[in-house]
């Protein structure tokens, strides 16, 4: 007679979580797949055994301040896999704190020891599929690395639409000659996400640390060959000089002239450049512009408040008169500030 197998406490806890959680396998429709689990162990431990739907963000990197762009947004639920060598309660407390009144959405925490991974393997559930390596050297290769971070939701919504509108059936994620120009690229999440979809990206910022983080994130996800960083303060150069610098970065000896150029700006605004871009013939095929609008100064945050840093209602539509306007909407951030959601295509 077969004996009934007795479940361990970790198996029972894992089973209860799998039965009750609302988290499912992410479906993002292209680019780097999103992770469910934040694995806080060191890279070597992660390499030996990990969940397929996990991303490795070691606590040491978080403590050094090097992992900000790798962490999930506060609005995204995730599960913590704690480092068993360290105080687990302290790790939970770290992700229970809020930031400016916005808490993390920590769904659950499991201790990342052998018993946990054995329980996951026994569960036979795609959400906790285990990947093991006999050799514990090195880290997961770039194509296996998932992301907890997210691109801006507006870009994630509208760039696929721009792909269909400008390239149609000619779009491929492996051989595209299409180029994105990212104005004010920051730490590079939007740039790396676009590159993972097959775009070449010119990421422009005057923050050297941000550009270094952009390159590191691109290397981590295996798209560094598709991302070119450009260190320039767009407000301190003539418009002609700006276009010359960007054109030189877009077209170089290693890359042929792009078939399509999309310029996007997320929370970046330089009005003279915006107006010049709209009027410039044969440069951009499409624009995606997401920025703070008039009304932010009256919000609880109170900034930005200067006219040069705020878009007026209809300002983008007026600037891009003659383009096909795909959307000209206003979104409200969780903190109450209005932002533009503007997409236009030059036919």
TrEMBL record:
Origin superkingdom: Eukaryota
Sequence ranges assigned to domain Methyltransferase in this UniProt record: 181-241
Name assigned to this protein: Methyltransferase domain-containing protein
Lineage of source species: Eukaryota, Viridiplantae, Chlorophyta, Mamiellophyceae, Mamiellales
């Amino acid at each position: 007679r077969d004996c009934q197998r007795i479940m361990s406490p970790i198996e029972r806890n894992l089973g209860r979580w799998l039965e009750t959680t609302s988290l499912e396998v992410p479906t993002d429709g292209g680019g780097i797949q999103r992770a469910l689990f934040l694995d806080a162990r060191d890279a070597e431990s992660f390499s030996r055994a990990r969940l397929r739907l996990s991303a490795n963000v070691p606590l040491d990197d978080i403590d050094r301040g090097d992992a900000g762009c790798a962490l999930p947004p506060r609005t995204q639920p995730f599960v913590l896999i704690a480092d068993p060598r360290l105080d687990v309660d302290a790790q939970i407390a770290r992700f229970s704190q809020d930031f400016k009144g916005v808490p993390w959405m920590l769904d659950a925490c499991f201790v990342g020891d052998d018993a946990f991974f054995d329980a996951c393997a026994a569960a036979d559930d795609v959400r906790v599929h285990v990947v093991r390596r006999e050799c514990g050297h090195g880290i997961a290769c770039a194509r296996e690395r998932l992301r907890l971070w997210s691109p801006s939701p507006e870009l994630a919504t509208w760039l696929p639409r721009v792909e269909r509108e400008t390239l149609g059936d000619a779009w491929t994620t492996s051989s595209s000659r299409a180029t994105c120009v990212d104005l004010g690229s920051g730490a590079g999440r939007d740039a790396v996400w676009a590159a993972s979809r097959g775009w070449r990206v010119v990421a422009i910022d005057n923050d050297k640390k941000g550009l270094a983080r952009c390159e590191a994130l691109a290397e981590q996800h295996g798209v560094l060959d598709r991302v070119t960083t450009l260190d320039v303060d767009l407000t301190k150069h003539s418009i002609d000089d700006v276009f010359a610098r960007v054109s030189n970065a877009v077209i170089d000896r290693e890359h042929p002239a792009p078939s399509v150029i999309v310029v996007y700006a997320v929370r970046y605004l330089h009005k003279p450049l915006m107006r010049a871009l709209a009027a410039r013939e044969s440069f951009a095929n499409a624009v995606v512009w997401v920025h703070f609008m008039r009304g932010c100064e009256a919000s609880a945050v109170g900034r930005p408040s200067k006219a040069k840093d705020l878009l007026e209602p209809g300002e983008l539509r007026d600037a891009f008169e003659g383009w096909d306007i795909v959307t000209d909407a206003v979104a409200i951030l969780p903190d109450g500030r209005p932002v533009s959601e503007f997409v236009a295509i030059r036919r």
